[in-house]
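Q: Hi! First time asking for a complex rather than a single chain. Here are the components, and I think there are three in total. Is that enough to go on?
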Amino acid sequence: MKKLLKKSYLMTGIVLMLITAIVLTGCSSNSASGSSSTFYEGKSLELLVPFGTGGGTDTFARFVAPYLNENVKGSPTIQTVNVPGGGSINGSNEFVLSRKPNGQNALVTSGSTHMPYFLGDPAVKYELKDMKPVMGLPTGGVVYVNPETGIKGPKDLTKSNEKLTYAGISATGLDLVTLLAFEVLQMDVETILGYDGRGPSRVAFESGESNIDYQTTMAYLSNVKPLVKEGQANPLFSFGQLNEKGEVVRDPAFPDMPTLKEFYVKAYGEEPSGTAWEAYKAFLGSSFTVQKVIWLHKDAPKEAVEALSQGAKKAVEDPEFTKKGEEVLGGYKPYVGDQLDKVVKNMLNTDEEVTNWVKEFLEKEYDITRYQ
Amino acid sequence: MSKEVKSILFTFFLFIIFCYMGWEANSFSDKAKFFPFFVAIGAAVLSFVSLVLQSIDLFLRKQKNEHTEDIGEIKRVLQYVLWVVGYIALIYVVGLILATILFLLVFLLVESKFRFVTTVFSTVLVIGGLFLISNILNLYWPSGLLGITIF
Amino acid sequence: MFDAALEALSIVLDPNRIPFMFLGISVGLLIGILPGLSGTVGMAILLPFVYGMDPYTGMAMLIGMAAVLHTGDTFPSILIGMPGSSGSQATIMDGYPLARKGQAGRALGAAFFSSMIGGVLGGLVLLVSIPIAKPLVLSFGSPELFMLSVLGLSMVGILSGNTPIRGVLVGMIGLMLGAVGAAPAVAEYRYTFEWIYLFNGLPLAVVALGLFAFPEMIELLAKKQSISKSEKLEGGWLEGIKDTIKHKWLVLKGATIGSLIGFVPGLGGSVVDWITYGITKQTAKANNNFGKGDIRGVIGPEGANNAKEGGALIPTLLFSIPGSGTTAILLGGLSLLGLQAGPRMVNEDVSVTLSIVWTLVLANIFGAAACIFLSKYISRLSLIPATILVPFLLVVLTVASYQSSRQFGDLLLFIGIGLLGLVMKRLDWPRAPLLIGFVLSQASERYLWISMERYGFTWLLHPGVIILGVIIVALIAGGYVLKRSTEKKDTTETANTA
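A: Yes, that's all I need. Here is the structure of the assembled complex.
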């Protein structure tokens, strides 16, 4: 044991020294200027994450970074920098206002960055329409109920035994999509907002404080599926994904689960329509279908956009990327290239009428006046 | 001015702040309002009560307690607060590294009465340490209005 | 279970993994010793290295860091009266007065030894409670969580000594400061003046540093003193260990409270040490020396703040609910390692969970031993005159404050809260209640709101709520009665001697 200890101290020392060395060389080698044909030769790329360390977006960025380094021509050294604050508005503003548009700075956004942009938050200074997307990652979600409500499928929708209660975080976060889904289905759900995160709201569901809930793909698979098996939860529908044409299609992570659209058709015998449905689709796109996006500045050099897009394409094709990223990517394949452009365009082409309707909906139902 | 009088003034200051916060809270939407509004009102009432109690106390004890604080010490406290504020203001203008160099050089010479060589040596040591630690620990620091970066 | 535990131990002790655990421990100690840097910074440093490691190695490193953080952060709390991180705030109350009496070595020895025991017990609690964790966590609904916040807030009364009105008033300042930023129930920003810095609320580290460190530095300079008023340091770490052994039940009490409150999701670990301190003081005999340098005021909270790390891992690993900034990053680390928090952690991935338990235990032992070894040298800091110590300290604190949100607002807030703290210190107002109010502000508002929305007033009749209510009343009333009786005894004793 003693010998082991001594050895390990030595090892620790070596590891510490190595780290110092890595850090020091990492700082000094960035200055070489690129003179060869490829843009990123000898350059570095900084991924600005407008969230704190360890969150979903940060994890995504840190996971993607080494694959970009490998697959982007010129192998740029990649650093992730966290600028948290203001629910990601702060870091995104900083990116647009004070980072150089030289192709060496990229921004990683999430659904909660897109939301205030769509709703026209006065603090938002970024214009997503002008920026250049490089990679986009979808996620999905499933709505489920407590079996005691007696709801098993679309037909029982209005015949709940108990009052439906939903535990949410904030009406202007991902919850908005769920709330719009309830609106589309004309369900009478009492919404209690203010929970500390999706984890606590799931605990609220398990302890009986709420009886209808949703979780995003990864959390559903690891935490709700066991509940379904034990008969403590009935899945109803998945949110679905928005395809390139702007239609709601089945979620690749849940190929056997009906989407909200199919669910509606079974319940009411017709296709969903109206402003609520349009709003649902719009916010499904920005909150789930392209939940995380890596962007470059609008005036970033063309070569940079090109090189990074190509690199992203190559990275996504890497089988190891898919295999190792199971937990981070949630089993989805990121959007790249033309497909990404189309999906992002879809997401950004939201009718002003629809946005205004949502703002009114938020004010009327949830007392939110910030966006008026 | 005795401590008791200052305490009363401080309580009055709190009273004003709480009143303002309560007033401001009144303009929030209902869901955001209830907590700050009621806490602020409760605090305002409590500070008012405390104000009255302290005043009565002071009035009754007025003759006994004539102890005042050491004026020299107050001056020194203000002096050092100004040192700190000056340092932070300097950071705002020229960034952390330059501000630290200037601050340490001046402070160590003037206040700590270090010899010149020791002062320079300590400053270099601190800057070196800062550089090393911030690289290992991946720390950040403000770069300042003028955008001067040394490293 | 036993075989699995042994197997996990051999995994942890694998010579290829041990260095990484020690790497985690060294980073944790360093972050702890530097005042104002929190576990979030430590996690952020280590996270990039996690990539590509196997889950056991990665977890050993991250947990090693988190486990000893609250061992190392005792140094600044005791030696310079500044919170080393959010976990060591209550240690200041009695640890710093001890250092000022020249007994820094004794206080540190007691703190580290009780930290070690508390940490090991916390790891064991984590191990034992795995099978019953689920019903336990689920029994805390929003009403119970609100009552727990109230229990924390009731410590304000205990900590404000002879000036209860001032204490409550200061606690309310804390509540109001905690209300700055986004409201929990609705998308609305309060008291922010559209300044984005304030949108996320005030960072705890900056508030704590401003409140305690800023006034201390100014006062030391103005009085031209060193921290220790006596020239020589008396009482070494051995004496501290003897103190701890003498008060072994206190360590046990602290560790129990720590791991129990640690596992409750949503309350945040920052309040654990205050609650322990309050309970320790309320239930101690002859407690009028608390706040002036009673060694028991160090032992209790120090036993608790390491034990809580074990408890706090339960909601994190089983329900993927982060209890603090540190555990939030731990969740990110888990997914980078290819794991997902959830019921799997006690079924398929139970070996990882067990290895975490072992890492907790080992890291606490090694960390405390290292600290005891270091304390001999570091406690000399308290002999350095203020004019020499403070300028360097100021630089460190400025850098540390700026790490909270990396905006200039951090430094402005540091000065702002610092001035408030200075005034309060000079006027003899208690400052600890502000921190308690601040830490619990969000939780109280959130859970009160949810309880009222969900249950109306019927939540007051929940059994858990009633039990917690009784405990709160008993603590306040009991302390009052106890104080009365000791006062009486004191007066009769003085009467007798006179």
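A: Residues 42 and 318 of chain C are 23 Å apart (CA to CA). Let me know if you'd like any chain examined more closely.
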